[in-house]
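Ticket 4471: requesting a sanity check on a complex prediction with 6-O-phosphono-beta-D-tagatofuranose. Repro inputs:
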Amino acid sequence: MIDQLNAQFGLGDQLVFGLGPGDLPLVEIMNEAAMAVLSLHGGHVLAYQPLGQKPVLWVSKLARFQHGEAIRGGIPVIWPWFGAHPTDSGRPSHGFARRSLWRVRGATAVSPAETQLRLGLQDNEETRLLWPHAFDLDLTVTVGAALHLSLRTQNKGPEAFTFTSALHSYFTVSTVTAVSIAGLEDAAYIDQLAGMARRRQSGAVQISSEVDNVYVNTEAACRLIDPYWQRTIAIHKQGSRSTVVWNPWRDKAQRMADFGDDEYRQMVCIETANAAENEIRLAPGDTHEMQLKIFVEKEEET
Ligand code: TA6
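Returned structure tokens:
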């Protein structure tokens, strides 16, 4: 499989396929601007690091690399439902896209400093048992001075369907209590830790305990400001009206087998989503695109 992928899609040193942990197929991208690692299992960006910068994404040291399991960290593709299945809690949380093997659709050396990989997932017997619709899911990842993801959903069936989704980005930080997230000021949000209570954000988001907020009806870009590492990560989006901020804090981290007890200090999730009332309804044949652009800004003028 790996030899065939390299023969068909390899781009010399710029894009190489190999086997990673759990013998899952990985893609390593290295160009003049950045490096990235992706897993074909889950269509999952695992690492992104611009040259001269610290890693941008976080992956748990206890992450599971197994068929059918979700990988803890990077940018899981949450689709076609965000959170628990709306009617059947027995179905996998956050849908099945991140637990499925995606196919390679293309690889392009756009320039010496920009590399593009296209992955795809279509319905099959297994997915139709979980979600009775025909679909085509296309993920285009562009690695360069910025990391760009475009997730396109197409309804291939005879009737309309509704879906929720997220690019569930895990960012690595110096220490979570030191960072702040700008861009969500005055946004309405659902506090998933308080019986889905509706609240409104006052000021920048800061984290000193478990946080699980679904900000709705916001198309704003966010900025993750990390004073200790003297960097700001910019998170821009299109086709997304929800942003989710999550940190499990200590107790929840200890309850998760694929999350180190103290790892909550080094990460925060800022997720580009369409969740809750921002669900998307697609007529037969229609396509929806959600885009995410992540880049490291220079140090803030202090
Ligand atoms: O990011 C929001 C959230 O829905 C949290 O409630 C938490 O469950 C997190 O996703 C991780 O979910 P997972 O199924 O990956 O453990």
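Notes from triage: The helical segments are 2-9, 125-130, 249-255. Leaving this open until the requester confirms.
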